[in-house]
Amino acid sequence: MAAAAATTAADGGDASVIETPTLEKEFPCLLQRISEQGGYAFVSMTSLAASGGDMRAAEAAREMAWEQLHSGPWHSVLPIWRDAYSMACLRVAKLHYAAGNFVEVFRALDMGLIMGGTLLRHDLEIAVEKVEAKARDIRSFEERQIDDEKNGSRLNFVDFNEAEMLQVLPIKSLSSKIVKKQSGLSLEGFLRDYFLSGTPVIISDSMAHWPARTKWSDVDYLKRVAGDRTIPVEVGKNYLCREWKQELITFSQFLERLLSTNSAVPTYLAQHPLFDQIKELRKDVLIPDYCCAGGGELRPLNAWFGPAGTVTPLHHDPHHNILAQVVGKKYVRLYPAFLSEELYPHAETMLCNSSQVDLDNIDDVAFPRVRDLEFMDCILDEGEMLYIPPKWWHYVRSLTTSFSVSFWWNNSEGSSVH
User: Fold this and answer.
1) Where in the numbering of this chain does the JmjC domain appear (predicted)?
2) String of b and e for 174-213 (b: at least 16 CB within 10 Å)?
């Protein structure tokens, strides 16, 4: 059975195997290119896995590719080793699929999607679709009935009043210029009054028809469609803190941490293209018409999902951004782009879009000008969207358990699509 799972194009539409048409076509060329980079041991192990269905060889090949991905800075990793990692993940997934071990299949495929190259991405995506369909089919009618009849748990929210909220927010919050809120904002009105002038605005009534508005607060729904999938999460206050780290865990493990009352260190799913990875969740959101403004190119959607207290420190992005608040509430503070120098950007290239200023604890000696700078801020409520113009600095704090989606797009002149 395992050997059958490792065979190639002859698999056709066999339900007992995962088809990998691109891999089978590119396999000899890939092995040649990997050999040219000194990957002789990898080639030996992956060939053994392909011809003999040897799980130990498949795992060894994956480990070798993983080591290459971590041999230096990510940008210096040769693209061939990213493709090699995708290939190894596919081989491991095929063997686990043949054995009916769907948890490990999903993990292998997700790791390939997250860490692998682009050449075999289509194979990984069609494999995920097949495994998801198979996993649904093997659930018994009784299990489905139980799932449908039980009262699902909901994402929990921290109760707070305004006085308590102001205690945790940066100094002067909600005391100055509040971002304007618009209901029934037309695309023409958005373009004329906000997009062209580069002015933030809250759009209050454009998400009621999204399936995500009701589905994403249902923990059982999230577990059902994404529970076995592996995702990258951030652990710690934020990415500028020394103790901050990243982990790869399943979505179910993430939900357990999110719902736990004993977790002292926040775990945050931040700026991850979740919807490219988990298509079922992508069906729950709709692209706002406002993202057509300027005729630009929409970038991959990013998810932001975490408990109360998670913070994205002060930074700016080069794109137009609509931050859609699907579940929960967030506080957002915004500084216009022309104040960049007064906000003390980091000198390092990797962090030059982030401020050295910790708004939660401002160092007046090191950053004397910050307290007097004008800003806009707001509470972004569930069901609202916030337009953040390019290069506007923003600080974001979750006030409750929060699930948001950001839509980034470029101006047409900055786009690769014309």
Assistant:
1) 276-418
2) eeeeebebbeebeeeebeeebbeeeebbbbeebbeebebb
User: CATH number of the domain that 304 lies in?
Assistant: 2.60.120.650
| Residue 152's pLDDT band (cuts 50, 70, 90) | low
Please tell me the distance from the alpha carbon of residue 50 to that of residue 92, in angstroms, as a whole number: 10
Bridge pairing between strands 201-203 and 181-182: parallel
Q: What angle do CA 295, 287, 329 make, to 5 degrees?
A: 120
Q: Is residue 147 part of a domain?
A: no
Reduced to 3 states, what is the DSSP secondary structure of residue 256? helix
pLDDT, tens digit, 9 for 90 and up, residues 213-245: 999 999 999 999 999 999 999 997 766 666 778
Neighbours of 381 (CB within 10 A): 14
Q: Indicate whether 25 belongs to any domain.
A: yes
Total domains in the fold of the chain:
2
Whether the CB-CB separation of 354 and 240 falls below 8 Å is answered with yes
Cα separation values, 230 from 81, 112, 210, 254, 403, Å? 21, 10, 25, 10, 18
Question: Bridge-partner residues for 306, per DSSP?
Answer: 402
Strand, coil or helix: 123:
helix
